[in-house]
Automatic annotation (TrEMBL):
Protein origin, superkingdom: Eukaryota
GO MF terms, alphabetically ordered: methyltransferase activity
A matching Pfam family: Methyltransf_16
Name this protein carries in UniProt: Protein-lysine methyltransferase METTL21E
A GO BP entry: methylation
Gene3D superfamilies: Vaccinia Virus protein VP39 (3.40.50.150)
SUPFAM superfamilies found in the cross-reference section: S-adenosyl-L-methionine-dependent methyltransferases (SSF53335)
Lyase keyword on record: no
This protein's UniProt keywords: Methyltransferase, S-adenosyl-L-methionine, Transferase
PANTHER family the record matches: HEPATOCELLULAR CARCINOMA-ASSOCIATED ANTIGEN, METHYLTRANSFERASE-LIKE PROTEIN 21E PSEUDOGENE-RELATED
Length: 290
């Protein structure tokens, strides 16, 4: 009896310690930190729908029971447990709130946006979470980002899709505006969907990003793009984007300052195409802290 009581006490302590680690870790997530901001809570106090959906998205996240040498976060999407390796020294190797919003949208709108056997490309894939979810939902996925991010991207995608996905995703280098005709020739690409999460912020390569959208997008391609608004430069990009694409706001999350857009190419007569720059663009990744 004494041994049983000691064992029960030890298990209780271990459980409490695990819960403490979980709480400490989950509040380090950028989305949780943002939502705990009193000013954010005050601003979104009247928007019940927004807070309810964001809370549901947060419930899809989990953390290791114990501290590990390699930082990772867990997520529940598309009926699977997904583990993502992250890096704290690189914006492109961290899961940001916009990616969670897009994953949740894809999972909860499978009837309207059925990805089964569709050709999908993600630009600025980062850790690969969005590409993994799209793959688990049945799509042919091409996950792209800068060369220095491809190792971790490939690891996360292989780890979470092998034997689980209908079609194994591809991982390819894509620096915005660089060698597009060579690496993604127009004659051979035919993407049904372009996915993008948090690829726009105040950097000097927004024109190259716009050229990349334009190059990859056919007449029937649907762009699903989640954007966090931070500075006026981002608003100007949206205005520029609308010169080429018909843009529809699908969802808005005021507490996160995030919007989810659907876009399709305008017809050629009404579109105002950006002039392509002749020099080689410097690679840039679309990532920024909250």
């Amino acid at each position: 009896m004494i041994l049983f009581n000691l064992l029960e006490t030890q298990l209780t302590r271990e459980h409490s310690f695990q819960e403490m680690i979980k709480k400490a870790s989950i509040y380090r997530h950028p989305l949780a930190n943002h939502l705990m901001d009193p000013e954010v809570q005050k601003e979104s106090g009247e928007d019940g729908d927004d807070r309810t959906v964001v809370a549901e998205i947060m419930r899809r996240c989990f953390v290791p029971a114990f501290v590990t040498t390699i930082p990772w976060e867990g997520f529940h999407f598309a009926g699977h447990e997904i583990r993502i390796n992250e890096a704290t020294d690189c914006y492109g190797a961290v899961v940001w709130p916009s990616a969670l919003v897009l994953c949740y949208f894809l999972e909860t709108n499978v009837k309207q946006y059925n990805l089964v056997d569709k050709n999908v490309i993600e630009i600025g894939a980062g850790t690969g979470l969005v590409s993994i979810v799209a793959s688990l939902l049945g799509a042919h996925v091409t996950a792209t980002d800068l060369p220095e991010l491809l190792g971790n991207l490939q690891y996360n995608i292989s780890r979470n899709t092998k034997t689980k996905a209908k079609h194994l995703p591809q991982v390819k280098e894509l620096s915005w505006g660089v060698a597009l005709d060579k690496n993604f020739p127009r004659a051979s690409i035919n993407f049904d969907y372009i996915l993008a999460a948090d690829v726009v912020y105040a950097h000097p390569f927004l024109e190259e990003l716009l050229v990349t959208f334009d190059h990859l997008c056919k007449e029937t391609t649907v762009i699903l793009w989640v954007m966090k608004f931070r500075l006026e430069k981002e608003n100007k990009f949206v205005d520029r984007f609308e010169q080429l694409f018909d843009l529809e706001e699908i969802s808005s999350f005021p507490s996160l300052n995030i919007k989810l857009y659907k876009a399709m190419r305008k017809n050629q007569k009404s579109a105002c195409y950006p002039q392509r720059r002749m020099w080689k663009a410097k690679p840039i990744s679309g990532r920024l802290l909250l």
